[in-house]
């Protein structure tokens, strides 16, 4: 039944292991002529933000060498050999001892040249702090003579601060991004993102040469049809070059990247689309006249089967990836669903016509299906309204208290109720409400897993529905933390509250005594905040509402997901262990039997 879930969980853990183990190796940031970087070794930039090494995408047997962030959701930011992968782990990166060019040597054939300069030179290659891989020519005494080549001039699918998008007017070189073929294959895909060659002060996304999206013109100092997520763009135009570039402040993100995805979206490091809206409902000047008028329906990710079994199938030889089926389906109103047919590399796909029904299931032949859904129906609304009335009733006692504290809380209480990231003593978070972290990456809310009625309070990674994040396609993979594993609530009347006497976090519900989330001793004035990192933190708070110290944080009690900044290991002072544990089943977050943490008897990681 739950095989797929388990496999995904294992893959997920393995990726995590590779990720964590990867950081234990070499600390050098430079390669000299005669040295080699073997598969398994890494170059690490000064301060350790970027690393260069070999990697394999999920479900693939192909090895690529690329630059990636030490952490972050979309780790890989540059791929050296996207169109010439190697099989097996025989690869090594070297500077050719005769001509000084950067090459990948491997047992399966001729070396793959990354640079190709004429003439014999003495060179070195350095991964610099900005993530740029730079090939230098050296004097015979070893000092740097000049730069020969840099990876920033040959971007793949991602733009980092310091990179350019545009054209070098002197040699005609264009800086352009090109998407991956699929999320599992860095090979060149259908989408490009770059400067419009005709109107050089705007950016465009093209699919197979056809314009799909334009940014609007630059002169106003900003783009229309562009979501401002703190990525500060600038435009430079002079006699030598015309280009766009951007900078990001550290308090926005430490891992900035802008990526053109395999389905033509433009995403930031959190997986958010910078474009305005979903396919078919763009607010920018998307030039796709063929999109069928679907009213307010949209495609959502589901897991299960279609009643008719197979739909219309397309093979890899038809040059149809999942994204091609997506577009085919969007453009044809009689299409209601699409899916990949080969899970390994999603280079084959199929579509289904109206009349076929979706069946939710977790059998072995179930898979991820993108299904047309109508927005929630009236029946739903009635349930919500009735539920809301009861909740209002239950929570009404807190109203006076809430009002009292409201003024002090205005710093974080923004215009929209949904934008609150902090809860003060006396305030309550009802089932149906949410706390939203600054910049909206995470939210805290009540939910039911799968089809069950049990309710849990959890932190969710708040990604847009149309963005598929690497492996984690199914809805519940967005869940990153659960407050009360082993004590679910049986109805929709739960409220998260801060106890007014001792300042602890508690969940009130209609069927019994409150569930304690934190248990800090003594009576204190506290507040709880959902931080940008997804960490839910209980702070001791002074009379004027300012934050004093951390009393409790969810990052100390991870559930099944490791987020950046969380720890696995042990605090030697308190003896507290940080480890992850799997869900009991696909549909129950109760503690399962798999754990991942630091083995107390060894210095590395292991399964338990
Ligand atoms: C190395 O050689 C170059 C040219 O031969 C010279 O300009 C440079 O100063 C030398 N550097 C050192 C550290 O001796
Ligand atoms: C390259 O420079 C190094 C000094 O860093 C020197 O030891 C080596 O002999 C030089 N190699 C060639 C081929 O000139
Ligand atoms: C640029 O102009 C040429 C010639 O007018 C036209 O064929 C091409 O489609 C234009 N490109 C874009 C991106 O508008
Ligand atoms: C954006 O960058 C420009 C220069 O690149 C700078 O002058 C400006 O202050 C930045 N704006 C913000 C909001 O960071
Ligand atoms: C739309 O799909 C239906 C059924 O899959 C097919 O018969 C029809 O030819 C398609 N129309 C277009 C314009 O592709
Ligand atoms: C996709 O996987 C199939 C095997 O499932 C393989 O034959 C094919 O070459 C792969 N295609 C790509 C582009 O990786």
TrEMBL record:
Q: A single Pfam family, by name?
A: B_lectin
Specify the superkingdom. Answer: Eukaryota
Tell me the leader sequence span: 1-26
> Is the keyword Disulfide bond assigned to this protein?
yes
KW Transmembrane helix (keyword) present = yes
Q: Enumerate the PROSITE patterns for this protein.
A: BULB_LECTIN (PS50927), PAN (PS50948), PROKAR_LIPOPROTEIN (PS51257)
Tell me the keywords, alphabetical order: Disulfide bond, Glycoprotein, Membrane, Signal, Transmembrane, Transmembrane helix
Q: Which residues form the Bulb-type lectin domain?
A: 28-148, 420-551
Where do the TM regions start and end?
380-401
Apple domain span = 292-375
Name of the molecule in the record: Bulb-type lectin domain-containing protein
């Amino acid at each position: 039944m739950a095989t797929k879930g388990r496999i995904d969980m294992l893959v997920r853990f393995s990726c995590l292991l590779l990720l964590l183990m990867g950081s234990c190796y070499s600390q050098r940031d430079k390669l000299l002529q005669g040295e080699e970087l073997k598969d398994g070794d890494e170059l690490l930039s000064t301060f350790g933000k970027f690393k260069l090494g070999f990697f394999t995408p999920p479900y693939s047997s192909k090895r690529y060498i690329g630059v990636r962030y030490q952490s972050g959701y979309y780790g890989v930011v540059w791929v050296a050999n996207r169109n010439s992968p190697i099989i097996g782990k025989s690869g090594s990166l070297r500077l050719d001892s005769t001509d000084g060019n950067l090459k990948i040597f491997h047992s399966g054939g001729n070396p793959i040249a990354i640079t190709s300069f004429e003439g014999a030179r003495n060179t070195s290659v350095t991964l610099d702090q900005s993530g740029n891989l730079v090939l230098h020519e050296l004097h015979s005494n070893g000092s740097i003579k000049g730069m020969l080549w840099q990876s920033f001039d040959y971007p793949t699918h991602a733009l980092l601060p310091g990179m350019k998008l545009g054209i070098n007017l002197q040699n005609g070189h264009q800086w352009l991004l090109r998407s991956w073929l699929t999320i599992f294959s860095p090979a060149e895909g259908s989408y490009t993102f770059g400067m419009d060659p005709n109107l050089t002060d705007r950016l465009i996304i093209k699919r197979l040469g056809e314009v799909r999206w334009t940014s609007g013109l630059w002169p106003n100092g900003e783009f229309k049809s562009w979501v401002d997520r703190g990525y500060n763009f600038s435009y430079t135009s002079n006699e030598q070059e015309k280009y766009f570039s951007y900078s990001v402040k550290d308090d926005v993100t430490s891992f900035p990247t802008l990526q053109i995805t395999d389905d033509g979206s433009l995403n930031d490091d959190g997986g958010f689309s910078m474009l305005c809206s979903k396919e078919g409902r763009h607010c920018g000047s998307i030039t796709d006249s063929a999109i069928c008028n679907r009213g307010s329906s949209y495609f959502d990710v589901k897991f299960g089967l279609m009643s008719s079994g197979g739909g219309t199938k397309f093979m890899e030889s038809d040059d149809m990836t999942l994204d091609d089926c997506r577009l085919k389906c969007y453009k044809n109103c009689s299409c209601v669903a699409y899916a990949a047919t080969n899970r390994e590399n999603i280079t084959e796909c199929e579509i289904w016509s109206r009349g076929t029904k979706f069946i939710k299931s977790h059998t072995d032949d179930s898979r991820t299906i993108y299904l047309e859904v109508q927005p929630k129906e009236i029946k739903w609304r009635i349930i919500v309204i009735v539920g809301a009335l009861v909740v209002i009733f239950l929570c009404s006692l807190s109203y006076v208290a809430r009002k009292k504290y409201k003024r002090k809380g205005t710093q974080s209480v923004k215009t929209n109720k949904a934008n609150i990231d902090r809860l003060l003593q006396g305030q309550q978070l009802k089932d149906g409400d949410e706390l939203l972290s600054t910049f909206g990456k995470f939210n805290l809310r009540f939910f039911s897993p799968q089809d069950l009625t049990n309710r849990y309070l959890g932190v969710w990674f708040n990604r847009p529905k149309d963005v598929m994040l690497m492996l984690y396609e199914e809805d519940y993979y967005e869940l990153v933390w659960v407050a009360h594993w082993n004590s679910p609530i049986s109805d929709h009347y739960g409220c998260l509250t801060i106890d007014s006497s001792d300042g602890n976090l508690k969940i009130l519900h209609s069927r019994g005594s409150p569930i304690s989330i934190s248990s800090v001793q003594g009576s204190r004035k506290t507040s709880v905040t959902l931080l940008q990192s997804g960490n839910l933190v209980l702070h001791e708070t002074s009379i004027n509402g300012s934050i004093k110290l951390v009393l409790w944080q969810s990052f100390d009690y991870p559930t099944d997901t490791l987020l950046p900044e969380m720890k696995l290991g042990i605090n030697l002072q308190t003896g507290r262990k940080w480890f992850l544990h799997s869900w009991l089943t696909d549909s129950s977050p109760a503690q399962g039997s798999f754990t991942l943490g630091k083995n107390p008897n060894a210095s590395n990681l292991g399964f338990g």
